[in-house]
UniProtKB/TrEMBL annotation:
Pfam families: Peptidase_S51. It comes from Pararge aegeria aegeria. Gene3D superfamilies: 3.40.50.880. InterPro entries: Class_I_gatase-like (IPR029062), Peptidase_S51 (IPR005320). It is an enzyme of class 3 (hydrolase). Its main location: cytoplasm. The gene is jg21072. This is dipeptidase E.
Length: 247
């Protein structure tokens, strides 16, 4: 899959020991500044109170020298995306986010603009989920139904944000994250799943994928019995080879 995509896909906006988005400040500022971007369009669709959510993100970005405008304040969301240089898609409920993107006919538009290099994409949690092949590996409850689980497909695989291993001393006997992902891997439509630990950032730079941030990731692959660990700094560009005809 030939792509000119430029994206930062964050496991979450919050990371232990840091204020909102602080763990990703250096990467975000460099990502935007080197591309001469000073204004972000924020997509708050994963939560219900758009104004409050946008204010929270604006309060984080303003001290860094960037302005933030909520997509919900535009009368024509598609026109706003068409004129934007960069968007930040926030976290919340992935099903709600994807449905609202479909309702506003933005899924294919965002994909086209990002893949052609005409729109920078920053996603966090649910915003990262919808940047992938599908939302099958989100941790969220299906509180509402999007018309499809197919997502924007900036990358041709799936991501599991907030990935965490089972703690051996934990007395909880419910399913672990690994078991849930393994259930997905048994499906005929399964894609590789990159589990982003809290504080992990996947930097998409055309045909390059590199793990950044303060934590690494794990990879689950179809018909591979063991997950593979990747530290911060690892090059996982080989995952782009999983592109299929629908990508």
């Amino acid at each position: 899959m030939q792509t000119n995509a430029q994206a930062l896909l964050l496991s979450s906006s919050n990371c232990h020991g840091f204020s909102l988005l602080e763990f990703a400040k250096q990467e975000i500022c460099s990502f935007l500044e080197t591309r001469n971007v000073s204004e972000l369009v924020f997509v708050p669709y994963a939560q219900k109170n758009y104004d409050d959510y946008t204010k929270k993100i604006k309060d984080a970005f303003t001290p860094w020298g960037f302005s933030v405008i909520g997509l919900h304040t535009y009368s024509d969301p598609a026109a706003a995306i068409n004129s934007a240089k960069a968007i930040f898609v926030g976290g919340g409920n992935t099903f709600l986010l994807l449905k609202t993107l479909y309702d506003n006919q933005l899924v294919h538009l965002i994909r086209e603009k990002v893949i052609t290099g005409n729109l920078l994409y920053i996603g966090s949690s649910a915003g990262t989920n919808v940047a992938t092949k599908s939302i099958h590996t989100t941790n969220d409850m299906p509180i509402i139904y999007p018309p499809s689980f197919d997502a924007i497909s900036i990358v041709p695989f799936n991501i599991n944000p907030h990935y965490i291993d089972k703690i051996e001393t934990d007395t909880h006997k419910g399913e672990t994250r690994d078991q849930r992902i393994e259930e997905y891997m048994e499906m005929p439509h399964a894609n590789p799943v990159l589990g982003l630990r809290e504080g992990c950032i996947l930097h998409v730079n055309g045909d390059s994928l590199v793990l950044k941030g303060v934590a690494g990731a794990v990879l689950f692959e179809v018909n591979v019995s063991k997950k593979v660990e990747y530290p911060v700094g690892a090059d996982v560009s080989f995952l782009l080879n999983y592109a299929k005809e629908t990508c």
